[in-house]
């Protein structure tokens, strides 16, 4: 049996909160390893990084998600009873519901709604001195997602409902007030969604049968039962909230366009480079740092022992920047994909493995489509200035965001 290096601290949670995204990769470098043990959130945890480790992590025979996610995340980001915590057949059935909502027609329709929202927003931005891009795009995506899902929102409730989605995302890795805001937001949002589900079931509101609100409301679980309204609410929020979260990637895309003006010019003119540009944004600015699972039964891997029930954490952040997969990994270089190939385990900003089988994010196609649209809008449908502001990224913050949230000014629509 091979010894797994042990992080020197008796309890490393404080270090995790202090260092954030780089916590696992810093220690992998310190101990010259892809695997180490640490005590995190009062529990012995095996931390893993890199492509080979990701392949292991997504082996369903060896790991379960049940009871793996820290309680703080379940109460803010995930919600109780959602697909993230299911295993086996129950997961497969629930996951199919999500996969069926991600057809090409869905991607096209969501993008179409987003385009309309961008156009309307850009017109209104002309009258403003400055716009904070991150929150403005959150609003665009929220409205587009609600239209796509068939979720009715009163015009005067849009800002509040959208702010709730934003709080759940931003509070996920936070403590103190950020955490409590996220919990409150989840409570309010779940109540809103659960009431809608009851209205759909009681035929008190009309919604098209192919809309997500209808499909989730009438979805039957592995036992053939309807989901509890609270669980259906969690799953509906699993569609709205992350679509709002894509605004973070659009903000980072704007930052990349600003820092690499040559790309702004290239992307304004043709679509060829859009995909690699967007992938590089996702690789470098992935803002979901780690994932957790539990060992099903004792096993050995490369001589290391994994004890039954033990918690394991996979480093998404560090794997996306692993120099064995990516040359000069900290540099923004969309052209890298001409030579360096993405696979299901070396590029994992939204998880790895297979979408239908593993827990990999079913929203990757929505994400890619909406970032692309954001880049098109920023380069082709408007002009703007980037005033002096603090664009630094605090890598210890989970989730990352440029300090100023990317402020733009002198906005003008173009044809
Ligand atoms: C799962 C990230 C967008 C719905 C995940 C996972 C990550 C992730 C890291 C966990 C993978 C795992 O456990 O192995 C992101 C990021 C997004 C995004 C960074 C961009 C902002 C979306 C969108 C949707 C979505 C647009 C739906 C419209 C889900 C669902 C799961 C999930 C339902 C749970 C899947 C499962 O447990 O099987 N996402 N996601 N996500 N994502 Fe996303």
Cα end-to-end separation: 66 Å
Strand order of the largest sheet: 1-2-8-5-3
Helix-strand pattern = HHEEHEHHHEHHHHHHHEEEEHHEE
- Could you please say which CATH topology applies here? Cytochrome p450
Helix proportion of residues, in percent? 40-55%
**What structural class results from the helix and strand content?**
alpha+beta
The level 1 CATH classification is: Mainly Alpha
- The tally of strands reads 10
Number of distinct helices:
15
Low-confidence blocks of residues: none
| Cα radius of gyration in angstroms | 21 Å
Q: What assembly state would you assign to the polypeptide chains in this entry? A: single chain
Bound molecules: protoporphyrin IX containing FE
- Give the percentage of residues in beta strands: 5-15%
Account of the 3D structure:
- The protein has a single domain (13-413), classed as Cytochrome p450.
- Helices cover 48% and strands 11% of the residues.
- It has 15 helices and 10 strands.
- Strand 1 (35-40) and strand 2 (43-49) form a beta hairpin.
- Helix 6 packs parallel to helix 15 (364-380).
- It binds protoporphyrin IX containing FE.
- Protoporphyrin IX containing FE binds at residues 83-84, 95, 98, 238-239, 242-243, 245-246, 249, 287-288, 291, 349-351, 359-363, 366-367.
- Residues 83-84, 95, 98, 238-239, 242-243, 245-246, 249, 287-288, 291, 349-351, 359-363, 366-367 line the site of protoporphyrin IX containing FE (HEM).
- Belongs to the cytochrome P450 family.
- This is Fatty-acid peroxygenase.
- Keywords: Heme, Iron, Metal-binding, Oxidoreductase.
